[in-house]
Amino acid sequence: MNERPMPPFDDELLPPPPAAKELRVSVSWLAKSRLRGDGPRYVKIGRSVRYPKSYIHEYLRARTRSSTSEF
Fold it and tell me: What is the pTM assigned to this prediction?
């Protein structure tokens, strides 16, 4: 089984609207990216979706590029 590291327990958990604002994308984009599996990692608590701030920052770091030729 592939274990993923958990966010720190003191990490702020953002619901989709503030997470979208932090990423400067729409709430709809976040929902679609969850379905596609290409957005930031998230946590499900019951039926609620939450985005730990550290996962949002991790997502941004992973997509930072220095050149248009980088993949």
Answer: 0.81
7 domain residue, yes or no: no
Q: Looking up tokens 């604002």, which residue turns up?
A: 21
Domain span including residue 32: 13-62
Give a yes or no: residue 69 inside a domain.
no
Q: From CA 54, how far away is CA 57, in angstroms rounded? A: 5
3-state SS assignment for residue 57 = helix
**Does residue 53 lie in a domain region?**
yes
Encode pLDDT of 10-56 as tens digits.
789 999 999 999 999 999 999 999 999 999 999 999 999 999 999 99
**Is 47 domain-assigned?**
yes
Sign of CA dihedral 52, 53, 54, 57: positive
Name the phi and psi angles at 52, rounded to 5: -60, 140
Closest CA relative to residue 23, chosen from 46, 3, 32, 70:
32
